[in-house]
UniProtKB/TrEMBL annotation:
<feature type="domain" description="HTH gntR-type">
    <location>
        <begin position="16"/>
        <end position="83"/>
    </location>
</feature>
<dbReference type="InterPro" id="IPR036388">
    <property type="entry name" value="WH-like_DNA-bd_sf"/>
</dbReference>
<dbReference type="Pfam" id="PF07729">
    <property type="entry name" value="FCD"/>
</dbReference>
<dbReference type="InterPro" id="IPR011711">
    <property type="entry name" value="GntR_C"/>
</dbReference>
<dbReference type="Pfam" id="PF00392">
    <property type="entry name" value="GntR"/>
</dbReference>
<keyword id="KW-0805">Transcription regulation</keyword>
<protein>
    <submittedName>
        <fullName>DNA-binding transcriptional regulator, GntR family</fullName>
    </submittedName>
</protein>
<dbReference type="GO" id="GO:0003700">
    <property type="term" value="F:DNA-binding transcription factor activity"/>
</dbReference>
<dbReference type="GO" id="GO:0003677">
    <property type="term" value="F:DNA binding"/>
</dbReference>
<keyword id="KW-0238">DNA-binding</keyword>
<dbReference type="InterPro" id="IPR000524">
    <property type="entry name" value="Tscrpt_reg_HTH_GntR"/>
</dbReference>
<keyword id="KW-0804">Transcription</keyword>
<dbReference type="InterPro" id="IPR008920">
    <property type="entry name" value="TF_FadR/GntR_C"/>
</dbReference>
<dbReference type="InterPro" id="IPR036390">
    <property type="entry name" value="WH_DNA-bd_sf"/>
</dbReference>
Length: 233
């Protein structure tokens, strides 16, 4: 792409590398449920699906393994991570500690929740796989729009780092209990509290939203029978 020749012109974004393209495609397939937990990700097959060689697929899988979405085995290769009960409790415990606090601060700082409102305005819930994929994306966008204005970039960065693993738990959980329609109603209540300036109510509703979801699906996660209900309330 040409570089802008005037100071007033905006420089166009750099082209996406093949590795980035493959990483984003695999990530979206995992977080929409298209690639299910435990599913083997064969480099040649993924490459053929995306029209690339095995090299960017191999690099992308290593990056996704670092973010906790993929597991790598010397003998079995790469596969979608199976989120067990212990890991889910750990991720949701941290979310329940940090995310409601970030939203409370966003409300108190007078953050604009227009992006969150726009996300919810486009929601159409349903019961088929396509709706589940859309609901997964909407869920991620909505939660980030709530906490993005908290005023602490490091807190936002930490929560962003949790988003992928939390989304993987969400997709797994919806396979156990397809509750995204009810969760959309909870989202509307949280947003209403935030936009009305009721920071404590928004904080309370979001914490309950996070912990109630885990309570609903934990019994269906691998390893829950050997994991005491730790509770994140």
């Amino acid at each position: 792409m040409p570089v802008a020749s005037t100071s007033s012109a905006r420089r166009p974004p750099p082209p996406v590398s093949r590795t980035d393209f493959v990483r984003d495609a695999i990530k979206e397939a995992i977080l929409s449920g298209e690639f299910g937990p435990g599913e083997t990700l064969v480099e040649a097959e993924v490459g053929a699906l995306l029209g690339v060689s095995k090299t960017p697929v191999r690099e992308a899988l290593r990056i996704l393994a670092g973010s906790g979405l993929v597991t790598m085995s010397t003998y079995k290769g790469a596969s979608v991570r199976v989120m067990d009960a212990e890991s889910a409790h750990a991720v949701y415990d941290l979310r329940a500690l940090l995310e409601p606090e970030a939203v409370r601060r966003a409300v108190e700082h007078g953050a604009d929740f227009g992006d969150a409102r726009q996300v919810l305005a486009g929601v159409e819930t349903g019961a088929d796989a396509a709706d589940r994929a859309k609901a997964s994306l909407t869920n991620r966008l909505f939660h980030r729009a709530l906490y993005a204005g908290c005023g602490n970039p490091l807190l936002v960065e930490v929560l962003d780092g949790l988003r992928d693993q939390a989304a993987l738990i969400t997709v797994t959980g919806w396979g156990i209990s397809p509750t995204w329609q009810g969760e959309a109603a909870e989202h509307r209540a949280i947003l209403a509290a935030a936009e009305s300036g009721n920071a404590r109510q928004a904080e309370h509703l979001l914490r309950r939203h996070i912990t109630d979801f885990l309570d609903r699906v934990a019994c269906g996660l691998p390893g829950e029978h050997s994991t005491e209900t730790k509770g994140t309330r």
